[in-house]
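Researcher: Quick test of sequence recovery. Tokens follow.
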């Protein structure tokens, strides 16, 4: 199978690496508007060759759109147009889905598209961040199954199985709510904590010298790129604001209890939060 990967960054590059290594594809064609990224992808053997968007879509049987979601909204209709009269299958891996679903709802080639989201990643970006085994034993979400052809669904399921992922099905709106709670708020929290510490560190130089494992793991996501996350927060703003309001509400509960030295209340909040262990 020939696969076109549009956007050879962390996700697209890591998918290309393992899909080729595990025999799901015999040729990976890369597309990237950054010439340096394209060259790195070739030198790192993430892709077999690079091409223009039109050339890659024409040659491939499966097209994976792995760009930031604002770029994806522009490219997806164009890619579907290029698939007219073929049996090519298109998927994207963006972390928001509802806006995209509305945009291409009436496209004549809608059945050839599968909305998907592999729930995996790191704080790094670009082709040099691509790694093997990134997706192993993680969850991939396929959205709006009923709007895609059975052939397309089967192919994308097989693709994620080749990546050793568990596949679950949701609708786009449910997905965006869940993603806001389990992914998007984590990044916002990390960005905010990093800003708070950097501001204080201007006066107390030893703060970052004393930072250890807990701090490092908490702010790890603050190294994530604005290019990726600004469009996510924009596209999923309604759900992100809802979860952000809930998060602020819980922070204020801690603040109030600590301010009034209500140790039992603080302990109660911590014990309640410990229940997350049963889920994780």
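Model:
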């Amino acid at each position: 199978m020939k696969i076109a990967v549009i956007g050879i960054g962390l996700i697209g590059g890591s998918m290309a690496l393992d899909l080729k290594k595990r025999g799901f594809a015999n040729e990976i064609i890369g597309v990237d508007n950054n010439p340096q990224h394209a060259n790195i992808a070739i030198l790192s053997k993430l892709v077999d060759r690079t091409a223009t968007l039109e050339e890659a879509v024409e040659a491939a049987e499966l097209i994976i759109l792995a760009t930031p979601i604002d770029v994806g909204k522009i490219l997806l209709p164009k890619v579907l147009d290029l698939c007219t009269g073929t049996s090519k299958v298109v998927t994207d891996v963006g972390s928001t889905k509802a806006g995209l679903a509305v945009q291409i709802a009436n496209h004549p080639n809608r059945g050839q598209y599968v909305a998907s989201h592999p729930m995996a990643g790191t704080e790094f970006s670009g082709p040099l961040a691509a790694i093997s085994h990134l997706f192993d034993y993680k969850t991939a979400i396929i959205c709006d199954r009923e709007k895609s052809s059975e052939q397309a669904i089967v192919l994308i399921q097989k693709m994620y199985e080749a990546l050793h992922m568990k596949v679950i099905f949701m609708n786009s709106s449910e997905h965006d709510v869940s993603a806001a709670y389990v992914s998007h708020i984590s990044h916002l929290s990390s960005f905010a904590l990093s800003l708070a510490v950097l501001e204080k560190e201007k006066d107390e130089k030893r703060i970052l010298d004393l930072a250890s494992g807990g701090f490092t793991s908490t702010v790890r996501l603050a190294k994530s790129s604005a290019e990726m996350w600004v469009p996510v927060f924009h596209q999923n703003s309604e759900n992100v604001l809802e979860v952000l309001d809930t998060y602020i509400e819980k922070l204020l509960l801690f603040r109030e209890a600590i301010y009034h030295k209500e140790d039992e209340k603080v302990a109660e909040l911590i014990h309640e939060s410990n229940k997350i262990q049963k889920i994780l």
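The radius of gyration is 21 Å.
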